[in-house]
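Example: Mycothione reductase.
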Amino acid sequence: MSEHFDLVVIGAGSGEAVVDDALSHWRVAVVERADFGGTCLNRGCIPSKMFVHPADVAVLADDGPRLGVRSTAEGVDWTAVRDRVIGRVDAASRDGEETYAEKPHVTVLKGTARFTGERRLVVTLADGDVEVTADRVVLATGSHPVVPDIPGLADAGYLTSDDVMRTERLPARVGVLGGGYVGSEFAHVLASYGARVTQVDSAPMLLTNQDAEISERFTAAVRERWDVRLETSLERVSGTAPHTMHLSDGSSVEVDAILVAVGRKPSSDGLDLEHAGVEVSEDGRVVVDEHLRTTAEGVWALGDLSSDVPLKHVANADARVVHHNLLHPDDLRSADHDHVPNAVFAHPQVASVGLTEEQAREQGLDLAVGRREYAEVAFGWALQHDPDDDAAEAAGLVKLLADRRTGLLVGAHLIGEQAAILVQPLVQAMALGTPVRGLARAQYWIHPALTEVVENALIDLEQDLEAGPDNA
Ligand SMILES: Cc1cc2nc3c(=O)[nH]c(=O)nc-3n(C[C@H](O)[C@H](O)[C@H](O)COP(=O)(O)OP(=O)(O)OC[C@H]3O[C@@H](n4cnc5c(N)ncnc54)[C@H](O)[C@@H]3O)c2cc1C
Ligand SMILES: NC(=O)c1ccc[n+]([C@@H]2O[C@H](COP(=O)([O-])OP(=O)(O)OC[C@H]3O[C@@H](n4cnc5c(N)ncnc54)[C@H](O)[C@@H]3O)[C@@H](O)[C@H]2O)c1
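Written out as structure tokens, the predicted fold is:
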């Protein structure tokens, strides 16, 4: 016999946010096979940034002597940080689960869901299977790390972002495979905590999704701190802790652990979506329309499972759209994935929104470019030892792109201290369609805060817009 619900939500990461008291007139089931809070809370954004902050503190302590401060980081206590971080996120996850379990209209099913028909599911719980049917289903099963099939890797053993933050001790030597978000943030963490890091990426630069100038600066800055091997792949691994990584450039590196960080894949496998009539694209993403409806009647999807931008702020926004649309079927909202900012919380920090210069030129836009080095504004001086100091803290840059035809910002790219915060007024200008002309002068910018670097980049951009057509 199957149990019927008005709504079943599969995945209690961002899916959790769909279920609130506005739905109290419905019987709702939340199916979660692991921890409430999903990737972001348990093994993603939140714990990783709690590891990054001590890493930043250690870097700053080591940087003290450059500015006349007698300081050095004498090491970071991995176990203490790990216990603090994991203690906090595990408690938040348990609280989240309890909060839902206490809601009279919500049934929590701790198990793995798969479809057997249209809005018909089997959930495998610890003590057996239950059949569930529903009027509506929300798919929010997120994504998981990709592990490439490299000879010897599985036998040697490896870490991914799922387990690196829970590992017992800091490995002395770590091979980091991948130079994207996870690889670069964790190379920063591991190196700052005292590990010897070798980062390997098949691309010619780290953070290749960023504007090329920013990727180049980032790569150059972190090369001062750890070994970066670009245009290189891991051909095979031999040995079990220590392992030997055999690289495509003919070299080999001995390490105590390997962190695999070569991307994530939507978790659509195993849901048996073909039984539900839910279409999946070649890359594993569930296909949705602008209202986040899948191809099956009454089935919605959100977050990393279906998103073209797999970031938490996007998954949260998707959840708000689905929540509204479930309650207002005659007044559907659209998911807006335009002007989504991103940040890489490494050292230096990187943040951006919109098109890179390469993408904008490829689209044939007539571009105006505004730039300002951190070192050119007063707070940048504070980060510098002397005017020629190009240490990572000082070598920050704000680069802005506008379309001459519309006079609107089309991209903003920042590297350096507080980049993830400094980008926000630029996101706002893009989201609200505020013209570049007048933007810098229409408001006060606190002197001598680092925001002046954004103000000055905007002035530079405005001057370039005034100067006329681009001849680049
Ligand atoms: C190390 C790391 C750091 C990150 N840092 C940031 C950051 O700083 N900023 C940012 O914006 N984004 C960051 N992200 C990305 C962010 O974590 C994701 O975009 C976000 O968590 C996606 O949310 P979601 O709800 O779509 O999926 P998830 O949070 O992954 O939730 C999916 C849930 O579904 C459950 N599930 C899956 N399949 C089933 C099934 N068949 N039955 C039952 N339950 C199932 C899973 O157990 C999981 O709990 C980071 C990711 C990682 C890995
Ligand atoms: N700060 C943040 O917002 C944040 C932090 C962490 C993760 N995330 C999310 O998690 C996702 C996954 O992050 P990620 O770092 O795993 O992926 P990514 O897509 O950001 O980077 C993957 C990197 O691995 C490289 N690569 C791929 N295959 C390789 C191979 N076989 N050998 C060597 N290099 C290889 C690629 O060139 C690329 O540089 C991100 O796209 C993002 O959505 C976000």
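Residues 148, 177-183, 185, 200-203, 208, 233-234, 261-264, 310-311, 342-345 surround nicotinamide-adenine-dinucleotide (ligand 2) (CB under 6 Å).
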